[in-house]
Write a structure and sequence with these properties.
By secondary structure, this protein is of the alpha+beta class. It has two domains: about 180 residues, Aminopeptidase (3-Layer(aba) Sandwich); about 140 residues, Gcn5-related N-acetyltransferase (GNAT) (Aminopeptidase, 3-Layer(aba) Sandwich), CATH 3.40.630. The protein contains ten helices and 14 strands. The strands form two sheets. Strands 1-2-3-4-5-14-8-13-12-11-10-9 form a twelve-stranded mixed sheet, sandwiched between helices. A two-stranded antiparallel ribbon has the order 6-7. Strand 12, helix 9 and strand 13 form a beta-alpha-beta unit. Helix 2 packs antiparallel against helix 8.
Length: about 375
């Protein structure tokens, strides 16, 4: 069913609180985005809370976010009803690096689709990016199941991974000049992990690593001792992770940027759980992994970055830090139901670790690009 409702595109202001009179636009955008995420993935695991979206709008240290909404032209819009928001767009504008690009997401409520709402939001988002000097737009698509090879699938340019040509978002992006740059696999691990399985993998990895490596685990705030090392690992993550044809350039990280991210996470209602491996002979960090954990729910957590410094590969440090962090998660948040994560389909090394730990495929995401 579609409607003939008329609408207006507006920018979302940054409210002082979620109870402020102008917060209804952000709350409406959150409602529409949550509906879109739930439709795409079948759960709210990837949805953000209004608190997190407000923190995202406030934070402009590493990335400035602009939110746009399509508001229905009827009385409820005048009294500030979030239900009047029928579509939303988010434009992420990197500040410290990658200033050539903007990442755009768009969601429209099903009953208002095929009326030009998404196109209007995309045009407005492109205008924001162009005004900010960007030359490239990026976005993503979601498929709950990766399609089989054949005429109904579009293959990643890397040769690893496919998206469905039956997906309306894929059809729309191809028609409007976007190019598929990479496919990531979404994987899910149901908790708790079999303790015997976790112990076996942890012991095997510890045996391979030997006495030259020592583990450290911390929460959101990085211990001062490891601050600059951790920043260097995050910078290396931006260059070492497989990118396919994605035009993502090296990120600039230092201790100040790490501390700014920590402040944003606290404001957003997120906690980090980090395990890192120290190379004892040099006293430097050689590997790390982290969980992003929403404080308002134990339904799921997100497995974030995992990196092993190139000079230290071949010692099973990836498995070592992952098993240690899973054990720490079971102690600190024992009621968490599952872990979700993303990996480039060509990243067979990290996928192999995840599969060994019990992760199963839970869909694919395509990253798309279009020059401005």
């Amino acid at each position: 069913m579609t409607t003939t409702t008329t609408w207006t595109v507006r920018e979302v202001p940054v409210p002082s609180t979620l109870d402020a009179p102008d917060a209804w636009l952000l709350l409406g955008a959150n409602r529409v985005r949550t509906a879109g995420v739930t439709e795409a993935w079948g759960s709210t695991d990837l949805a953000e809370s209004p608190q997190a979206e407000l923190a995202e709008l406030r934070d402009a240290d590493a990335e400035r976010t602009v939110r746009l909404v399509a508001v229905a032209d009827h009385g409820s819009a005048e009294v500030g009803d979030p239900v009047a928001v029928i579509g939303e767009a988010s434009i992420g504008l990197p500040v410290r690096d990658n200033r050539h690009s903007a990442f755009v997401t768009i969601n429209v409520l099903p009953e208002h689709r095929r009326r030009g709402v998404a196109t209007a939001l995309l045009d407005a988002a492109a205008a924001v990016a162009r005004e900010d000097g960007r030359s490239l737009l990026m976005t993503h698509t979601a498929d709950r199941v990766e399609p089989a090879a054949g005429p109904g699938a579009l293959e990643s340019p890397t040769g690893a991974g496919r998206v469905s040509l039956d997906n309306p978002a894929v059809v729309w992006l191809e028609r409007t000049g976007w190019t598929l740059a990479q496919v990531d696999r979404r994987s899910q691990l149901d908790l708790p992990v079999d303790p015997a399985l976790l112990r076996r993998h942890a012991d095997d990895a510890a045996g391979a690593a030997g006495a030259d490596y020592r583990l450290h685990t911390w929460g959101t705030d990085v211990p001062e001792q490891w601050l600059e090392d951790y920043a260097a690992l995050l910078a290396q993550m931006s260059t070492d992770a497989p990118l396919g044809d994605v035009d993502r350039r090296p990120e600039v990280w230092d201790g100040e940027r790490v501390r700014a991210q920590e402040r944003m996470l606290h404001d957003a209602g997120y906690e980090l759980l980090v395990t890192a491996a120290e190379h004892v002979p040099t006293g430097r960090l050689a590997a790390f992994t982290n969980f992003w954990m929403p404080s308002h729910t134990d339904e799921s957590v997100h497995q974030g970055d995992t990196l092993v410094v190139a000079a230290h590969r071949g010692h099973r440090l990836g498995m070592l830090v992952k098993t240690a962090n899973l054990a720490a998660l079971s102690r600190q948040r024992p009621s968490v139901g599952r872990v979700g994560t993303w990996n480039a389909q060509e990243n067979r090394w990290m996928l192999a670790i995840n599969i060994a730990l019990g992760f199963r495929p839970a869909g694919v995401s395509g990253t798309w690009q279009r020059p401005l």
